[in-house]
């Protein structure tokens, strides 16, 4: 069993991966400067907790998962302790300086791979998520034993996507993908605050694109501000990107103030051409807009019906009758009472999932039926027919076959045990008689 140490493992991101690695059969140890916090997290996750030095020395794979501004210091502390033949990685959102530090402080026999998971700690699955891989030692990723034996199989098993590049290219691209995007969204949010603009009220007037933009802005500003500050300030290419952006903002502002329509149109048209395949982008954004109303429409059509709603963050499933729906909330009524759920936080499960969940959690009623059937009849086939009468029947199996004086010649008495929930067993009687068999 491979041993993994996550330095800073009681943080939000460290906990996500500690849980995933533990569930997939690795021995996981987490650390934190706040040892009591680490102990609480370890108990909750079912993993071990040790000091940085102990965890590093004992592990096959050491992952640095601390705040960006503390990453290089953490590397300086633990990299020299990583055993030769082991793997050293980091989860940082910038790559150039952490990768240089890992290469500088780790002994020559240690493999080094920078890794940037391109998602936040709110995810519930790695499927479809993107990882940027920046190999350091060896620089050719295919020469890495740990890439072939651990990281690549792990990513492929979890159906994650990955991109292999250099630390320099990573930071250059992230200066736009992350730094510029966050900079723009945070600037818009700050502008709305400065204007004392009523965002909630504005949604009543909103186009779907505006709704989507507001949700994306809220998603950014609602997360860890320290992380986003360091992404801006520690990427070496951010300053250059900011300067170009501010130059274009100033230029557009002047064009608008002077009423230069043709110049505005020319800039917008030129930018559109540079964006590439506009039709594909339109299609993707159309899907995103459609998704905003799809759940609401489905729930509105389910009023008075029983549904199962899964919380997308906690994975808790709520089952009940839909009593009312508005653009923000759905009210479910169950035996335990009423519950208000935010529509943006839940997923409506299909009917098959609803039955699967109910079959697991609801109490079952068990009944035995002794049926006279011809000697040549296949009792297991009949059991399967009964099982398929209704989804609420979770089991039907043969528990006894009797042949004796009381049984007519050419017949056998077969006892079927039927287990079901919320089921009218009169359907069984009707079905058996419809087959021409007699219940004893």
Overview of the molecule:
The protein is an alpha/beta fold and 440 residues long. The chain folds into four domains: 3-165, NAD(P)-binding Rossmann-like Domain (Rossmann fold, 3-Layer(aba) Sandwich), CATH 3.40.50.720; 170-274, Orthogonal Bundle (6-phosphogluconate dehydrogenase C-terminal fold); 298-360, SH3 type barrels (Roll), CATH 2.30.30.100; 363-439, Ferrodoxin-fold anticodon-binding domain (Alpha-Beta Plaits), CATH 3.30.70.380. The protein has 16 helices and 17 strands. It has helices at 12-23, 35-45, 52-58, 68-78, 96-105, 145-157, 167-194, 199-202, 208-221, 225-234, 238-258, 261-275, 278-300, 351-361, 379-387, 426-434, and strands at 3-7, 27-31, 48-49, 61-64, 87-90, 111-117, 130-137, 161-164, 306-311, 317-325, 329-334, 337-342, 346-348, 365-374, 393-402, 411-420, 438-439. An eight-stranded mixed beta sheet has the order 3-2-1-4-5-6-7-8, with helices on both faces. A five-stranded antiparallel beta sheet has the order 12-11-10-9-13. A four-stranded antiparallel beta sheet has the order 15-16-14-17, covered by helices on one side. Helix 7 packs across helix 9 and helix 7 (167-194) crosses helix 11 (238-258). The longest helix is centred in the middle third of the chain and has 28 residues, at 167-194. It is extended, with a radius of gyration of 30 Å. The two termini are 57 Å apart. The relative contact order is 0.05. The model has no long low-confidence stretch (mean pLDDT 92).
Describe how the helices and strands are arranged.
Elements lengths: L2 E5 L4 H12 L3 E5 L3 H11 L2 E2 L2 H7 L2 E4 L3 H11 L8 E4 L5 H10 L5 E7 L12 E8 L7 H13 L3 E4 L2 H28 L4 H4 L5 H14 L3 H10 L3 H21 L2 H15 L2 H23 L5 E6 L5 E9 L3 E6 L2 E6 L3 E3 L2 H11 L3 E10 L4 H9 L5 E10 L8 E10 L5 H9 L3 E2 L1
Parallel strand pairs: 1-2, 1-4, 2-3, 4-5, 5-6, 7-8
Antiparallel strand pairs: 6-7, 9-10, 9-13, 10-11, 11-12, 14-16, 14-17, 15-16
Helix pairs in contact: 4-5, 7-9, 7-11
């Amino acid at each position: 069993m491979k041993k993994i140490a996550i330095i800073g493992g009681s943080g939000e991101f460290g906990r996500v991966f500690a849980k995933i690695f533990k569930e997939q059969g690795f021995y996981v140890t987490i650390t934190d400067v706040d040892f009591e916090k680490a102990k609480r997290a370890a108990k909750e996750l079912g993993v071990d907790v040790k000091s940085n030095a102990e965890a590093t020395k004992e592990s096959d794979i050491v992952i640095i998962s601390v705040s960006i501004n503390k990453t290089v210091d953490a590397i300086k502390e633990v990299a020299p302790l990583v055993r030769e033949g082991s793997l050293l990685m980091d989860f940082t959102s910038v790559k150039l300086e952490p990768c240089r530090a890992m290469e500088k402080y780790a002994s020559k026999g240690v493999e080094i791979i920078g890794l940037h998971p391109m998602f936040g700690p709110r995810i519930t699955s790695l499927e479809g998520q993107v990882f940027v891989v920046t190999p350091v030692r060896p620089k050719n990723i295919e020469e890495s034993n740990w890439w072939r034996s651990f990281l690549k199989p792990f990513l492929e098993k979890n159906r994650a996507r990955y991109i292999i590049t250099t630390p320099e290219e990573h930071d250059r691209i992230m200066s736009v993908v992350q730094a510029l995007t966050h900079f723009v969204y945070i600037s818009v949010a700050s502008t709305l605050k400065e204007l004392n603009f009523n965002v909630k009220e504005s949604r009543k007037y909103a186009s779907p694109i505006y709704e989507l933009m507001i949700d994306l802005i809220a998603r950014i500003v609602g997360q860890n501000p320290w992380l986003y500050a360091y992404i801006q300030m520690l990427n070496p290419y951010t300053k250059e990107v900011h300067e170009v952006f501010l130059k274009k903002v100033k230029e557009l502002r002047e064009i608008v103030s002077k009423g230069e329509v043709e110049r505005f149109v020319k800039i917008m048209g030129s930018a559109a051409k540079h964006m590439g395949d506009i039709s594909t982008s339109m299609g993707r954004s159309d899907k995103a807009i459609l998704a905003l109303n799809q759940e609401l429409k489905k729930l509105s059509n389910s009023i008075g019906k029983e549904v199962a709603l899964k919380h997308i963050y906690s994975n808790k499933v709520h089952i009940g009758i839909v009593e009312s729906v508005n653009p923000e909330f759905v009210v479910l009524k169950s035996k335990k009472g009423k519950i208000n759920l935010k529509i943006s936080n839940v997923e409506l499960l299909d009917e098959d999932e609803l039955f699967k969940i109910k079959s697991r959690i609801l109490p079952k009623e068990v009944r035995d039926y002794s049926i006279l059937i011809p000697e040549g009849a296949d009792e297991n086939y009949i059991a399967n027919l009964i099982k398929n009468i209704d989804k609420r029947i979770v089991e039907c199996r043969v528990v006894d076959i009797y042949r004796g004086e009381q049984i007519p010649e050419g017949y056998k008495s077969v006892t079927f045990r039927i287990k079901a929930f919320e089921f009218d067993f009169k359907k069984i009687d009707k079905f058996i008689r419809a087959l021409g068999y007699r219940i004893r």
